[in-house]
């Protein structure tokens, strides 16, 4: 089955821009979706499709994709953005149709 | 606004069967894939499996031999059964709605509505 690879941890200074990446073969045919998860809470969708934000998600969150790599960019990171971030897509390998998650990236806002 | 409400037993003994149900309120049941995801303590998200309104299922290969996901469209509910549980199945279990489509050459998939999660502990 396909896998999605994320850096385990990333840090950013308050107000600066940070990019969180996700790599995997399935991303050559699927846009990644991105989820924010804070301690003790369910994940929340922040980016989906080409670069779409659900209602209520600040416009400092954006997504992009190139080849087998998807990126989540936070422009002007805020303290409340400190969380775990997961990417997700469907498995495009054809062997086991289903869903895959990246291992998650812990974002620290300094 | 669509909401997912989930419930089930939170404490199991090894070898028992985990059983959880998720009810869909405020939206259509058809046209989506309905998933179960779990998260062991301190670890990442693991997809367990999914079902659509017609009962078509896909499972994580690593869990497939122990997992059954079923649907009751009359109640807008879907359920998870995981047999022969061990301590390794201790996790928070989430249900979620999956939407999908394509922009021509590229596809998209995302989970836009999540349940609050159920903590399941397996202990003798």
Overview in brief:
The complex is a heterodimer of chains A (110) and B (124). Chain A is mainly β and 110 residues long. Chain A has strands at 5-6, 9-12, 18-23, 30-31, 33-37, 44-47, 61-66, 69-74, 83-90, 99-101, 105-109.
Describe how the helices and strands are arranged.
The complex is a heterodimer of chains A (110) and B (124).
Chain A: E1 5-6, E2 9-12, E3 18-23, E4 30-31, E5 33-37, E6 44-47, E7 61-66, E8 69-74, E9 83-90, E10 99-101, E11 105-109
Parallel strand pairs in A: 2-11
Antiparallel strand pairs in A: 1-3, 3-8, 5-6, 5-9, 7-8, 9-10, 9-11
Chain B: E1 3-8, E2 11-12, E3 18-25, E4 33-39, E5 46-52, E6 57-59, E7 67-72, E8 77-82, E9 91-102, E10 107-114, E11 118-122
Parallel strand pairs in B: 2-11
Antiparallel strand pairs in B: 1-3, 3-8, 4-5, 4-9, 5-6, 7-8, 9-10, 9-11
Describe what this molecule looks like in 3D.
Chain A is mostly beta strands. Chain A has strands at residues 5-6, 9-12, 18-23, 30-31, 33-37, 44-47, 61-66, 69-74, 83-90, 99-101, 105-109. In chain A, the strands form two sheets. In chain A, strands 2, 5, 6, 9, 10 and 11 form a six-stranded mixed beta sheet that branches. A four-stranded antiparallel beta sheet of chain A has the order 1-3-8-7, with no helix packed on it. In chain A, a hairpin with a 2-residue loop joins strand 7 and strand 8 (69-74). With 124 residues, chain B is mainly beta. Chain B is built from no helices and eleven strands. In chain B, the strands form two sheets. In chain B, strands 2, 4, 5, 6, 9, 10 and 11 form a seven-stranded mixed beta sheet that branches. In chain B, strand 7 and strand 8 (77-82) form a beta hairpin. The mean pLDDT of chain B is 96. Chains A and B meet through strand 4, strand 5, strand 9 and strand 10 of A and strand 5, strand 9 and strand 10 of B.
